[in-house]
Amino acid sequence: MSGVFAVTTRTVPTGTVLAFAGELDSGTAPAAHGAMTKLSLNAGDQLVVDLAGLEFCDSSGITVLVSAHNLARGAGAGFALAAVSRQLGRTLDILGLTGLFATYPTADDASAAWSPAGSREDGVV
Amino acid sequence: MIRAAGETENAADDDDPGGVAPTFSALLEDSAEDLYEHAPCGYLSTLMDGTIAKINTTLLGWLGFERAELIGRRRFSDLLTVGGRIYYETHIGPMLALQGEAGGLALELRTAAGTQLPVLVTSTVKRGSDGDAQLIRITIFDARDRLAYERELLRARRQADEERDRVRKLASTLQQTLLPPVLMTVPGLQTAAHYHPASVDEVGGDFYDLFPLTGGTWGFFLGDVSGKGAEAAVVTSLIRYTLRAAAVFEPEPISVLNNLNTVLHERFLAGDARFCTVIYGSLVPVPDGCEITLASGGHPPAVVVRADGTARFLHTPRGMLVGGVPNASFTAVTTRLGPGDTLLLYSDGLTEARTTGSSDRYSEEDLLAFLATANATGAAEVIRVLTDLLRGFGDGVEDDTALLALSVPGSDS
């Protein structure tokens, strides 16, 4: 039932970029959660979840995004989403999460906008 | 056995190469006659009228008869059970006469001791050089193992069927415990609800309820837990009881959701990463209707269908899904229902259904447009037209769908 899903982690000067590609659903969410447990986030870092390659995201996928947000918050790091599709944006809107997640067109844009001292971009509500 | 044969062969190689063939042959099979008599299957030859002419030792052993009791005295059909005899005479005999052979027949033989022996029978007609039928040759395989195997298959199949029925019954029973058996009647209001399960095998995660609070006020809610199955059902149950308890403790809708968020988020942190979306409402009767306050946690907006047929959303922007984050914020909206007005809560199984014959999904806007033209007045009527709509989507409804409607009876009814 679950399609192809890939998760890659890369380190950037501002922190970590976690890139999800393919279909994020109940079948593939454990792989995404698994990748998150291996992250080491420092206070003042930024965690960007790059969704440029994401083709599908159901409620299990939303849980992954919320968990990633909580993980960053717990570590004192910032959190942002990059390349949110129109459909996912609509879902996040209904779920009341647009105010919780800072979103940017690309992961690079998210990194460029990151300033550890600022509180606007870190998604703290 | 193989090693012994090899040694013999080697020994023969050294001494007498010419003696290999007869020795090896003797080890493999004594003779065609012995193979016939003691083959691992039964052999039987009959005259064309079925009279037994020849029978091998293997078959005699299975049946427990003496050779002399059968040869020239009994017919093959005499060895069969009554049912088998009728089948033989009406089907197998004619098939042999027509086609000269009949194979793969499952029959039962009667032994001398009176027991029954399940067998598989293959028959061919032997013809003489002039083409005339002379004999019927019958090969008989012991089918006791096979019969046991088939019985086992049937038993396993029956068990699988029973298991499936049990799972479905469990799912539907569990589902029923998550919903009020009968929706309560609020004095002066009409109420109606509908639950459409997407699967008979799995418990869905949608829920709703309506219950009295103090001073003539009422609480109600409708929501959707992420995920399905038993684990989601546990959370659904927790949510129902938490909402009811929280409403008694602090009835203001946003407070109710705040309390639910605290309870669910503890579970979320403990590893059961599930959230829910829900609209919780309080209802206070007023002259000619009721005052309603809704708080939404990440749920699609409720709809009000007014007495004049217009339909519009009760937007609750930025109300967050419940349980995902600590200190989630919720949004409230207030409206008044007058005579003929209906409030509808629904889950996204409806608004995300695939519409017939396309990959498009239904939407909140489609729902609003539908209600604006459906000309449905009152809770029961709104639920009825939506139930019909869902039925029309058929398999397009991929998720469970819950509907709850409250209305103030019109002045003319």
| Oligomeric state of shown chains | heterodimer
Total of DSSP H or I helical runs spanning 4+ residues of chain B: 12
Distance between the termini of chain A: 36 Å
Radius of gyration of chain A: 13 Å
Number of strands of chain A: 5
The mean pLDDT of chain B is: 86
CATH architecture annotation of the largest domain in chain B: 4-Layer Sandwich
Query: If you average the pLDDT of chain A, what whole number results?
Result: 87
Mind summarizing the main beta sheet of chain A?
5 strands, mixed
Which value, in Å, is the CA radius of gyration of chain B? 39 Å
Estimated structural class of chain A? alpha/beta
Major sheet: arrangement of strands of chain A: 1-2-3-4-5
Number of separate domains of chain B:
2
Q: What is the 3D shape of chain A?
A: globular
CATH fold name of chain A: Transcription Regulator spoIIAA
Report the CATH architecture of chain A: 2-Layer Sandwich
Number of strands of chain B: 15
CATH class of the largest domain in chain B: Alpha Beta
Assign the CATH class of chain A.
Answer: Alpha Beta
InterPro entries (chain A): Anti-sigma_ant, STAS_dom, STAS_dom_sf
Family (chain A): Belongs to the anti-sigma-factor antagonist family.
Domain STAS (chain A): 5-114
Protein name (chain A): Anti-sigma factor antagonist
Task: Kindly list the characteristics that best describe this protein.
heterodimer, A: 125 residues, alpha/beta, Transcription Regulator spoIIAA, five-stranded mixed β-sheet, 33% helix, globular, disordered C terminus, B: 413 residues, alpha+beta, Beta-Lactamase, Phosphatase 2c, domain 1, 2 domains, 15 strands, disordered N terminus, Anti-sigma factor antagonist (chain A), STAS_dom_sf (chain A), Anti-sigma_ant (chain A), STAS_dom (chain A), PAS (chain B)
Description:
The complex is a heterodimer of chains A (125) and B (413). Chain A has 125 residues and is of the alpha/beta class. Chain A has one domain: STAS domain (Transcription Regulator spoIIAA, 2-Layer Sandwich), CATH 3.30.750. Helix content of chain A is 33%, strand content 30%. Chain A has 4 helices and 5 strands; from the N terminus they run ββαβαβαβα. In chain A, strands 1-2-3-4-5 form a 5-stranded mixed β-sheet. In chain A, α1 runs parallel beside α2. The C terminus of chain A is likely disordered. With 413 residues, chain B is of the alpha+beta class. Chain B folds into 2 domains: 112 residues, Beta-Lactamase; 230 residues, Phosphatase 2c, domain 1 (4-Layer Sandwich). Chain B has 12 helices and 15 strands. In chain B, the strands form 3 sheets. Chain B has a 5-stranded antiparallel β-sheet, sandwiched between helices. A 5-stranded antiparallel β-sheet of chain B has the order 6-15-14-11-12. In chain B, α8 runs antiparallel to α9. The termini of chain B are far apart. The N terminus of chain B is likely disordered. Classes of the chains: A alpha/beta (125), B alpha+beta (413).
